[in-house]
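Writing this down once: the sequence line spells out the residues, with the fold written below as integer tokens. I am pasting one below:
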Amino acid sequence: MFHPRDFDRSVAFYRDTLGLHPMREFGEGRSRGVVFFLGGGYLELTEAQDEPPSPSTELWLQVRDVRLAERELRAAGVLIAESAVKKPWGLIELRVPDPDGLMLILVEVPPDHPLRRDSRKLL
């Protein structure tokens, strides 16, 4: 659950720019919220917050094609903190701040990465 400083701006970013699907909306005024469906989980934005997010907090979102996501985000005018790059641990990662500065890490798991292997084969 995140408490953005500008609720409407953040909802627009996650819904319109990132393309997340709003699963549920509730409340009014400072008590309103939106819950986005993330596949295996949910992201809830609710109520305004005056403090920026902690730099130690990051949100990882797995995508099918991180380089395509980067092109789409650049075309939408989104600031790219770090372009898509394959990290030493084998994941392809892109870093993008949300409107409040929360760092989003968009992650692509390559087909040959151990995270894609059948866990039964690891026993």
Summary: The longest strand covers residues 21-26.
